[in-house]
Amino acid sequence: MIPVKFDYVAPTSVEEALAALGEHGDDAKIMAGGQSLLPVLRMRLNAPEVVIDLGGIDALRGVRDEGDAIVVGAMTTHHEVRDHPLVREHALLVAKAAADVADAQIRHRGTFGGALAHADPAGDLGAPALALGAQFVIAGTDGTRTVEASDFFVGLFETAIGDDEILTEVRIPKHTGWGAHYEKFVRVAHQWPIVAVAATVRGSIDEARVGLTNMGPTPLRARATEAALAGVSATEDGVRAAADLAAEGTDPPSDLNGAADYRRHLARVLTRRAVLEAAGAQAWS
Amino acid sequence: MTATQDRPAQEIGRDRRRKEDQRLITGRTRWTDNITLPGMLHLAMVRSPFAHATITSIDVEEAKASPNVVAVLSGKDFGDELGVNINAWPITPEQKTPTHSPMPADRVAFAGEIVAVVVARSAAEARDAAELVDVEYDEQPAVVGIKKALEDTVLAHPELGTNKSALWVFDSAEAGTGGDVEAAIAQARADGIVIEREYRQQRLIPAFMEPRSVVVDPTGEQLTMWSATQIPHILRFALAATTGVPESKIRVVAPDVGGGFGGKLQTTPEEWITWAVARRLSKPVKYTETRSESLMAAHHGRDQVQTLTLAADRDGRVTGFKVHLDADLGAYVSLVGGGVPVLGAFMFNAIYKFPAYRFECQTVLTNSTWTDAYRGAGRPEATYAIERMMDELAAEVGVDPLEIRERNWITHEEFPFTTVAGLEYDTGNYEAATARAKEVFGYDALRAEQRERRERGDRVQLGIGVSTFTEMCGLAPSRVLGSLDYGAGGWEHASVRMLATGKVEIVTGASAHGQGHETAFSQIVADRLGVPFEDVEVLHGDTQVAPRGLDTYGSRSLVVGGEALVKAVDKVVEKATRLAAHLLEASEDDLDYAGGRFTVRGTDQGIAIQELATAAFAAHDYPEDMEPSLDADATYDPVNFNYPHGTHLCAMEVDTETGKVSMRKYTCCDDIGTIINPLIVAGQVHGGLVQGIAQALWEEAVHDESGTLVSGSFVDYLLPTSADTISFDVVHADDPSVCTTNTLGTKGVGEAGTIASTPAVVNAVVDAVRHLGVRDIQMPCTPERVWRAIHANDGDAPTPGGAMPHFDEGALNQDGAAQ
Fold first, then answer.
1. A251 — contact with chain B (CB < 8 Å)?
2. Quick count: other Cβ atoms within 10 Å of Cβ B819?
3. What ipTM did this prediction achieve?
4. Is B426-471+641-800 a CATH 3.30.365.10 domain?
């Protein structure tokens, strides 16, 4: 498992990183926590000439309060996200999903921004980010721009981040007091989800947001389910009809872990369970 | 005074922590890949991406020009010195066995087969250059899967004219060990019960922790090979037999080896190529595989279709069992090859008194990775088949699965018992193990809960699975192996060396790869010889140190190697007695030997074994008719297999809505005779259980129709971790039925957990949903398979691939970006 030889650059500021990216262009690959990139390099599925490691840029770490939103630095680890009081208070859904990423070793290395920029359809953080209406702050040499979550995920492993840009932080509108649950369906604990459902609700139930993991080439938002959930009671029967809409318009893959029709079935069942859990879980438990 | 007086009275049975673990766990030891020799070169293999293809051309020029590349060699660059990879167990005289070149020059027969090797000054440079080797292939049709292979329309090896390698048959009527199975089936069709099932043993990957690695140093008088292997002695023999180097010029070392599970019971193309390159270049060379290579090209295990017919009377007493196996050998007949399913032939009757039995095994060749031993090798397949069938019989008769077993098993008064397969079971007590397991498990309470949940229609149903296993291990009596046409014997060798300082070196031919031989063997010697545990050093794995041996597999090390050790120690004591009598000026008959000390009965005179070792070394004063040495060797050839058994009970919960299964409780009571080290046994049982449970629930190696391994990484080949398992209740028989064919009374335990657990789990899953019309779920029992089984008849599960909207205009759940 030896990667092709590459040069390694470790900038200490976003400006330096952008300059390095500008210099090497297509030959460069950005590394955040490296938890997806390094296996890819070691298996020789990709062979960039330069790896630009963002690990030395302190400004990209941490979580801060910006009034109606919290802002998560792209290089904040899953472990930090999971435990951060601001995340737990205002974006419980993100904390719950971060707690379920892979295993403890990976959560201490892998980063929030890195996982989102990688845009693996089975990644755990896309669905919560989408459900909460996150905004992605992307830096380029001409300054920064902000992209809505609904425009950020473009396709399989593809985002709105340009070749010469870097994701620096993610703004998550506050959902203070909303209950949340991330229902992840796996066969073994360290596996990517076969299907997962990210649900967060206000009251029981006044309003709901539901995101789906691995039900298409990008994370998806179950808007029909969300609409149908408004005003229902947080009971099996109350939620069932809305949850049954969750698979509408999805395009899940078929693979060794399940055919597409089974995944659609799972999406419906897991949505019901996630919403009910969320309604009963307004704080970290 | 010697230290022996401080020694605890009894080492055997003591929970000793393993003396080898510190170095193994910290890695501060000699793994093969840690070995670095002066001027050493590194290899990278070029492997075929096609399952079946002729090699049209190989252009190595660009690779040769790559930095620090020393050579690039393909099959046509080698002659006979490359040797061949052998099959040591042709199961029938007519067996079709394709020639297995380590690096074929003309045609590849599975995806992952080696077509060229790059030699460079570093592993990274070798790997870089390997990508520059330009191989042109002419792809041929590939045959993948047992059923396709049996059709014989596409051939894995066209020159053989068929994919069928061998048909091996045992029939109790012909062997005189029982009746005619066809008559029993005909009778049961008239007035009894006939159960017919087809079970699939999926293909598995041994997935040992340490990838395979080999280093060859040709720069001495002997050529030395270090290899991460289970079988240094067999490897040495095979190198000599096939590469033209005299055995006396070959030294093989298996240093610390990180697991095998049968996966390193092999002589590999990688070893042969490394050997040939080192000899060609006269330089030390090393090859260490990547995990991807290991999954793709190291041998796989299991892979059978089992066609089973069980005949019984209306009370559920079995009258006959007919077994037909089709077993996938993959592309070549490996070292043990068809012998693996044949090892199962004697175990389908398990613990039961079947009057008639017939076993057939058809081995087939396919264009997929070759198969061979994997933990249990033949016995898990047999145990799975019969234990699943006994549950089916219980369901048919309408009695508890334990009740149906009791109606058929050998009772403890009936031992020794000659089975319908012709084996003599020396001891066992199935009643006692079952009673104890039931008690610890809380069987009756769980059955009550199961009833309650069924009546309530709970979304999560509970199932209870039973597996009352036995197995044959301690491979093996050499004459039996000879009668089965196996190419070697089954004896083991041990030496005891009494050092001048009173320390003891023991040498065993059973080469450990994680089992804990160093600790367990030290405990045996400490007790048997009366020396401190700490004073015993166990040497193994180097053919210059341990020249005789048949290595480690088949739960044989303790029961065969341990017995050889006992016999060697007994010889040392015998010699020491003569020397003690001489030095104490007493008659041998007046000496007592206890706690490492000879004493003259009725006096205070005595001498310690360590003092005798020093005296023998000095050789100043010893009997004239004796050699001045206490050292001794022994070679032990077992007189029988041995037969551990146990009752395993498993409770599984099944979420009927998603098909997800979770283990609720697992209890096993194994009767493994005398236990040398309970901690090591616990480790073997826990690990063994997980490996068997993993076959039931998680692991499956899948090749697609073109022969590409789809489950080619641990993303798709699902190995469980501790997060996926529960704590098992592991107990042992209070009054074990000790093995009568070895001195210590031990039985093998290396494979027991794996053999027993797979059917226990699947029986539990099926039991949870049997009332919903389910009678089988194919392994691994994925949530999807469980869900489809539950909903097969109720119209809830849509047809696979049925039409559903795919991002249609106006579909509800999507964001603009995803269109």
1. yes
2. 11
3. 0.96
4. yes
